[in-house]
């Protein structure tokens, strides 16, 4: 039997606490990680809802992206400000057209510094429109008619609606994927110390994401959907996939190409989710890194349990387990990151996503095979 002792919100085995030096070392490590999280959260001013204000008369640069949104957030009282951090029982839908500045740096978001439109320098919302469910379905079907593909992004913890919209715009611009970009935004509080509330809001959104996946995969023109979940959004993604499997919706599951980046999921919970979902084709890809500080903090907050985004592919047992679960563990630790927490490396890999979108090419090349492999930075240089 495992005997454990609580220290604050962290559980440590009793034998680890028998040595005072061990207690001190563990406590200092926990304090250091929490301080890093606090400092990283305080770096720089976060964008307000004013960045969502449309500028229909702005002289747009050559590049624009059209983003479709489905959300379980409550609509803002002033609809021009998008959606709030509060929960809404009914799904809401919208369309955003965003211009990309000519000198855009891949992996970055050139945030508007004022309410004045500067599309030659900043990401700029040219138009956003609230949609009905029927209009959302119709536009997705029409937009996917040529490529037959869609790409859905599920954001993680501590993300505001505007941050999610601009992030998927950046990913779409940098990856140049052919699939219709869709954002599923759940009601994150966008506050660093609201981890538990965010987890509950993600749980609240499971049925919503399941419904949207069934909507999108059910469109006649959609043959495949690249489903990308980051961090806590990875947990939400897995829960929706589990629900599809329990409902026997094989048709929807067959159209999904699933990628999780730094999933914030307890390793045992992840295993039960995978078991319920069953094998996917192509194999699910899980981007992992052992030096992800955000996941280290999450691990400390949740009983010192290993997170799925920290799986160690140098461990033969881990790789063998991944093969049995038909999962590719891709270690992306080699990618440099400007993110102090090393939790958002996926944003620098966008140039690779177009290749990942093509299921057959990935499988035939041997890249998308179950097991474990290290990501080579040169792969991200693909045009």
From TrEMBL:
Any one GO MF annotation of this record: hydrolase activity
Pfam families linked to this entry: DUF900
Keyword Lipid biosynthesis: no
Family matches, as InterPro entries: AB_hydrolase_fold, DUF900_hydrolase, UCP033909
Protein's UniProt keywords contain Acetylation: no
Alphabetic keyword roster: Hydrolase
Positions of transmembrane segments: none
Protein name per its UniProtKB record: Alpha/beta hydrolase family protein
């Amino acid at each position: 039997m495992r005997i454990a002792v609580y220290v604050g919100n962290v559980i440590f085995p009793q034998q680890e606490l028998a040595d005072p030096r061990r207690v001190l070392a563990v406590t200092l490590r926990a304090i250091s990680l929490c301080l890093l999280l606090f400092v990283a959260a305080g770096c720089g001013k976060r964008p307000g809802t004013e960045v969502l204000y449309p500028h229909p008369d702005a002289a747009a640069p050559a590049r624009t992206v059209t983003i479709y949104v489905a959300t379980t957030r409550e609509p803002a009282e002033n609809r021009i400000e998008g959606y709030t951090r509060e929960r809404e029982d009914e799904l809401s839908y919208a369309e955003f057209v965003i211009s990309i500045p000519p000198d855009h740096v891949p992996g970055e978001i050139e945030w508007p510094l004022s309410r004045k439109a500067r599309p030659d320098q900043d990401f700029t919302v040219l138009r956003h429109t609230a949609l009905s469910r029927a209009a959302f379905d119709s536009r997705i079907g029409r937009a996917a008619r040529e490529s037959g593909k869609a790409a859905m992004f599920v954001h993680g913890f501590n993300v505001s609606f505007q941050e999610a919209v601009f992030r998927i715009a950046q990913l779409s611009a940098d990856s140049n994927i052919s699939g219709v970009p869709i954002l599923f935004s759940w009601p994150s509080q966008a506050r660093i110390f609201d981890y538990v509330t965010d987890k509950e809001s993600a749980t609240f959104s499971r049925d919503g994401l399941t419904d949207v996946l069934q909507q999108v995969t059910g469109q006649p023109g959609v043959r495949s959907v690249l489903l990308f979940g980051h961090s806590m959004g990875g947990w939400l993604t897995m829960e929706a996939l589990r629900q599809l499997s329990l409902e026997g919706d094989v048709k929807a599951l067959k159209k999904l190409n699933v990628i999780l980046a730094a999933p914030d999921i307890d390793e045992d919970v992840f295993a039960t989710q995978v078991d319920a979902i069953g094998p996917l084709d192509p194999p699910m890809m899980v981007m992992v890194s052992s030096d992800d500080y955000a996941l280290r903090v999450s691990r400390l907050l949740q009983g010192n349990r290993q997170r799925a985004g920290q799986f160690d592919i140098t461990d033969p047992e881990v790789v063998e387990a991944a093969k049995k679960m038909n999962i590719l563990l891709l270690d992306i630790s080699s990618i440099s990151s400007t993110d102090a927490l090393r939790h958002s490396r996926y944003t620098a890999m966008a140039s690779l996503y177009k290749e990942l979108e093509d299921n057959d090419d990935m499988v035939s090349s041997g890249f998308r095979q179950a097991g474990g492999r290290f990501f080579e930075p040169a792969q991200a240089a693909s045009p």
